[in-house]
Amino acid sequence: MLFENRLPPLEALNFCDELFFNEFEKLCGERYRILSVIQNNFQRKYIPESDLNELKKQFRRKISEKRWGEKILKKYEKFRKELIYELLSSSKKRYRNKDAVELITDFKKIRKTASPLDAMSNMLNLFSSQIGIDFYNHLKKYSNKEEILNKNYIYYTQPVKNSRWFKISVKNLADKITLSNIDKNFSKILRIANYIKDDVSELLDLRKKLTRGLFKEISNRLKCSYKDLMCLQISEIEIFLHKKNIDNYLIADRKRITVLFYPKKLLNIYGGKEALNFISKGRMREIKIRERKGNTLSGQPASSGRAKGIAVLAFSGAEANRRMKQGNILITAFTSVEYLPAMKKAAAIITDEGGLTCHAAITSREFNIPCIVGLKVATKVFSDGDIIEVDASKGLVKKMNQ
Questions:
Q1: Predicted pLDDT at 136
Q2: Are residues 240 and 342 both part of a single domain?
Q3: Residue-level pLDDT at 290
Q4: For residue 291, what pLDDT is reported?
Q5: Is residue 100 part of a domain?
Q6: Which of 9, 176, 268, 338 is deepest in the core (most CB within 10 A)?
Q7: Domain span at residue 384?
């Protein structure tokens, strides 16, 4: 459900519920409709343009709201401590002799404590991807030299605190631009966003590690695997625990294909034939999905430069690292730290998702690799082996005639 925290697709079902959308609305005053299709261990997400435009309006208002970013950070640190406390408490318990009520109570307590963090990460990812380009354009008021702009962009968007992967890398800058008050506030929000997004990713790993005992006991009682539980919502796990059995047909359907549809009222989940039927009846048109066809796509320039090479499509870091050769052009939905070996070999990087502060954008600028993000359908339009020409300064990707 557009989780920047990189939950594996089906694992997102455990944490996709009304709690998430309630917390998101508290943060920025808006909800959004979304449709997500999970198939072949890949999640493709769609949000209507009208909803994104409304979110952009809300985000742009927040830029001029003094201390909004600092308030978010203060809340985050509070919720983070609460979640770690709950996780540590759970990890010390022996659940073998506990009844089903206590198991599910602890599960729900952890979920409730984590939901504000999930919403913050998601909201700040949207903030960065939807209006991060505005900050770069704001910098153009101070200089017309691309080298100075890029250095200042990195300086003013680096994380406000060191996190697992993103560190404060530029402490002193010779050509530092002096920002206006509103741009200082914008910079602070982006820096807080980069810290929180990465830190939430680390918290997810911690959540998985410290809830292992709880999940293991639930798996044993339901005679299923951990991966099976990841196909279910918490409310469904609760029902199956009380029944003392699990619906293996439901799990098999969801592993085959799952559709999550949230029309701002009630989350709907469809699996297997039901999901295929949902798609075949054109329900996707309810949020006006538009696929771009042709040989040329445009996206958001993230790191300037030109390149030409053979396209490699990858949907995981492991796949990208295995298949990328020096000089290939990496095309993927998004990147994360696991993609780094493949990214270092790339002549250019192209992503469906992201904005100027996403992982692909930041990393490509550090490596001086041409990069375009936010093309939405690059992984559908282009194929493995295509000869691709990239003009990252203009945000254009073109398939050459072979």
A1: 83
A2: no
A3: 47
A4: 46
A5: yes
A6: 9
A7: 296-399
219/173 same-domain check: yes
Query: Same structural domain for residues 226 and 312?
Result: no
pTM of structure: 0.80
Per-residue HEC secondary structure of the chain comes to CCCCCCCCCHHHHHHCCHHHHHHHHHHHCCCCCEEEEEECCEEEEECCHHHHHHHHHHHHHHHCCCCHHHHHHHHHHHHHHHHHHHHHHHHCCCCCCCCHHHHHHHHHHHHHHHHHHHHHHHHHHHHHHHHHHHHHHHHCCCCCCHHHHHHHHHHHHCCCCCCCCCCCCCCCCCCCCCCCHHHHHHHHHHHHHHHHHHHHHHHHHHHHHHCHHHHHHHHHHHCCCHHHHCCCCHHHHHHHHHHCCCCHHHHHHHHHCEEEEECCCCCEEEECHHHHHHHHCCHHHHHCCCCCCCCEEECEEEECCEEEEEEEECCCHHHHHHHCCCCCEEEECCCCHHHHHHHHHCCEEEECCCCCCCHHHHHHHHHCCCEEECCCCHHHHCCCCCEEEEECCCCEEEECCC
User: Is there a single domain that holds both residue 77 and residue 131?
Assistant: yes
Domain final residue pick, 247, 280, 313: 280
Residues 340 and 213 in one domain: no
110 and 164 in a single domain? The answer is yes
- The residue among 46, 6, 11, 4 whose CA lies nearest residue 279 is 46
Q: Are residues 229 and 374 in the same domain?
A: no
* pLDDT value for 398: 92
Domain count of the chain? 2
- In the chain, the amino acid numbered 84 is I
Averages of pLDDT over each 10 residues, the chain, 402 residues: 47 71 87 84 79 91 92 95 95 91 92 90 86 86 86 87 80 91 94 89 87 92 90 89 91 90 85 88 57 71 90 86 94 83 94 80 85 86 91 89 62
Cβ neighbours, 10 Å, residue 37: 21
- Residue-level pLDDT at 342: 92
- Please indicate, yes or no, whether residues 259 and 320 belong to a single structural domain of this protein: no
Q: Is residue 286 part of a domain?
A: no
Q: What is the pLDDT of residue 294?
A: 60
**Residue 318, amino acid:** A
What is the reported pLDDT for 325?
95
Domain end point (choices 280, 310, 341)? 280
